[in-house]
Amino acid sequence: MRAAGLIFSNIHDASIPELTTRRTMASIPFGGRYRLIDFALSNMVNSGITKVGVITHYNYQSLLDHIGNGKDWDLARRNGGIKILPPFITAYDNAVAGKLYSTRLEALMGVMNFIDHCTEEALVLSDCDVICNVDLSRALAEHERNDADITLITATVDTAEQELDAKAQVPTFDEQGRLIDIDVYSGQTGRVEICSDILIVRRTYLQRVLAEAITHGRTSFYRDIVYRNLGRDRFFVTRYDGFFARVNSIESYFGCSMRLLDHDSRVNLFYRRNQPIYTKVRNSAPTRYLPGASVKNSLIADGCVIEGTVENSILFRGVHVGKGTVIKNSILMQDTYTGDHVRLGCVITDKDVVIKNDRELCGHETLPFYISKGQTV
Predict the structure, then answer these.
(1) What is the DSSP letter of 103?
(2) Which of 22, 26, 41, 326 has its CA 20 to 30 A from that of 52?
(3) pTM score, two decimals?
(4) Do residues 73 and 278 touch, judged by C-beta distance below 8 A?
């Protein structure tokens, strides 16, 4: 089945304001060298989707810098490729007059022109707050076999590892995968199966429900489209059983990142069924480990200089760790500089942070200490 992709880059920005003040959710750095949008883009490219629209809102300069012309994802194409879709391109698209969109459904109303010009039978819709490596080609085959209008991809979350919020949708379905009911998360503990917010939608069906939504002033995709049409339209569910994490707070960002230090989790995410996660290529020198350096159970990107101790941490490109410095359980983003004899524990530094000599900063796993972009401590 031929499909195009649509990625929502901004609709969850309010969930993690610390990291989205100057960037979109889609361009939040993750895992040492990636951005969150890399997972949605790679899922699509690995499944043969070569036409992808990225719906933007505001603060998307860093997203444009990261994506470029899409060549790192093999999306620099004359036909199809990657397209940045600013909000409400024309007066016709501006269904919510006087304001920018705030929901998934309103965002889709704003890109009706893109949807109408697609010739593919299906559209894959993906948020950027989820981290996973999904085989969309298998999901598309199930969608076609079921003659479905919408196929929801679900994932199982262990609430002991990650806290869920009220935005999570919990589906109920029968043995054939037909959706019976859908409700918001209400505090269940243990292993909970939720919607991953990756959906496959029949294009003609999406065009029809969007036209109805514009006419009746509807705003919620799950409430006004899925729940309203349960039992009448063909809605199905397919399961994803690999690594899954959702970034819905600074605490969850820290927890999701720390899960990458587990070997099995890392392999399950980045090397699942020969489906690589692509990102922007940056040619940097290898990391230098100078005399006195000690690194244990950490992810270290290229271009770093390490003179101190790093344990259970993630260092992005270009980080400098000074002499006698001890970094534990922390995330240091690109070009962070730490002086000599610094001690960090459960700290997140944004890009271009400078920490002077003899500083000691400490947070906790449930409340990491965050330093915003460009700050000097």
Answers:
(1) S
(2) 22
(3) 0.92
(4) yes
As given in the structure block, the two tokens for residue 376 are 């000097």
Q: Exposure of 145 by Cβ count < 10 A (0-12 exposed, 13-18 middle, 19+ buried)?
A: exposed
Find the mean pLDDT for residues 208-214: 91
Final residue in a domain of this structure, among 220, 247, 274: 274
From the centroid of its chain, how far is CA 357? 35
pLDDT in tens, 82-127: 999 886 544 444 444 445 567 888 889 888 889 999 999 999 999 9
Task: Give pLDDT, residue 131.
Answer: 94
Using CA atoms, how far residue 275 sits from 47, 261, 361, in Å, is 9, 20, 38
The helix/strand/coil state of 157 is strand
Residue type at 235 in one-letter notation = F
Q: Are 152 and 176 in contact (CB under 8 A)?
A: no
pLDDT for position 103: 83
Asked whether the beta carbons of 242 and 42 are under 8 A apart, the reply is no
DSSP 246: E
How many CB atoms lie under 10 A from the CB of residue 326? 18
Looking at residue 27, its pLDDT comes to: 93
Cα separation, 359 vs 325, in Å, equals 9
Residues spanned by the domain of 327:
288-371
Confidence at residue 272, expressed as pLDDT on a 0 to 100 scale: 77
Residue 224 inside a domain? The answer is yes
Neighbours of 366 (CB within 10 A): 10
What integer best gives the mean pLDDT of the chain?
Answer: 90
- The tokens of 189 are what? 């503990």
Which pLDDT does position 334 carry in this prediction?
95
What is the DSSP secondary-structure string of 313-335? Answer: -EE-TT-EE-TT-EEES-EE-TT
pLDDT digit string (tens) for 258-280? 999 999 999 899 887 788 999 99
Residue 331 lies in a domain: yes
Helix (H, G, I), strand (E, B) or coil at 13: helix
Sheet with strand 331-332: strands edge to edge: 299-300, 314-315, 331-332, 347-349, 369-371
Separation CA 283–CA 147 (nearest Å): 46
Residues 6 or more apart whose CB falls under 8 angstroms from that of 208 comprise none
Rounded Cα distance, 124 and 44, in Å: 8
The last residue of one of the domains, among 232, 250, 274, is: 274
Count the Cβ atoms, other than its own, within 10 Å of residue 208: 12
